[in-house]
Amino acid sequence: MTAAPVVSKTVVDILAELIAIPSVNPMGQDVQGDIYFEGRVSDWLVEFFQSLGVAYERIEVAPGRDNVIAKFDSPGSDRTILLDAHQDTVPVEGMTIPAFEPKIEGGRITGRGACDVKGGMAAMLIAFRRLVRERPANAASVIMTCTCDEEATTLGINDLVTYWQQPGRSGLLSSKPDVAVIAEPTGLDVVVAHRGVTRFKIRTAGRACHSSDPTQGVNAIYRMASVLAVLEEYADLVTRKVKPHALCGGATLSVGRITGGTSVNIVPDECVIEVDRRVIPGEKRSEVVAHLRRYVQERLDFDVIFDPPWLESPPLTDADNSELASAVLKCVQEVDGPHSAIGVPYGTHASRTCSAEVPSIVFGPGSIDQAHTKDEFLEIDQLEKAAEVYFQLCCDDGLTK
């Protein structure tokens, strides 16, 4: 257990403490060790909210993996803003700096999660603390959510958006918030649209035999080679046939992983690939896999097996978040000068809150170019400005009117 957070600590102090607490997402790998999962960060967050004297909840999503929620109640306000930041980070293999030993130098702080997204979390926590301590007269009520498993299968946010839909799941988030702001590194721009993703496995089946006479078997890897040729053709087709979104670009397909066979002297009886299909706002997600399956099967003379998607993350649409985006950009203007409403190709939790009918945007300190890198860092100046923007946004009495 870490030492109880002190309310006088700066945003840099808080970020340094969060970096020093490993919360690595194992990304589906069978690994063990103290650096994995979010438990110790969840412990820290509970202590932080306890030190503020606010109502909080710790809700188990999966064994040892929790969402931590706290609420600032603003007297007389009928508006609620949801601020969300995820607790987990990507793995640390290949890093060239100490992953969990934050270093402050040259206006930067380094370490795993500094940029993605413990910096955004620290900035939100500081803004939340100011609301509790200063209690601005015109502030909205604020739900601060710290979710688990963003980097892999999004268990945390999937669970979170059910809380106001299923009575009894949460005492603090029992009704739908008016708007949601999701922390990710956006360089203090405001992300109003992004692509979604559907990920699934494709399998080819063969018949195993001794490699000394391959004619006695059916090589599943050879069959997969034919599938891959069709997928490469389809990947080019989808970029040309699906009209790109004005802000976040076009639809794409990519094969990112392939496995097959058990030994070099055995003709393989199965081969498996993993497919990443990026979906743009306006596409019908329900048809993505079905369309690809038909395309593949029509061009091959053997059966190809499509597993059900193991991840379906919708896109973030800019159809209903212009008012929120304008409010955030107004706050940024006052803190850091003009910034822009943008679209991005990657996905975030905002797609899930948006799909749950909550107008949502993405905003935070840092550059996406630094996320998941071997020398991850965050500019302290942006960290401090983001904290101010989050606070001022929550004080904006015209935000949801």
From TrEMBL:
Family designation: Belongs to the peptidase M20A family.
CDD domains, alphabetized: M20_ArgE
Organism annotation: Fuerstiella marisgermanici
Highest classification ranks of the organism: Bacteria, Pseudomonadati, Planctomycetota, Planctomycetia, Planctomycetales
Pfam family membership, one: M20_dimer
Pathway where this protein functions: Amino-acid biosynthesis; L-lysine biosynthesis via DAP pathway; LL-2,6-diaminopimelate from (S)-tetrahydrodipicolinate (succinylase route): step 3/3
Stated name of the protein: Probable succinyl-diaminopimelate desuccinylase
Superkingdom of this protein's organism: Bacteria
Keyword terms of this UniProt record: Cobalt, Hydrolase, Metal-binding, Zinc
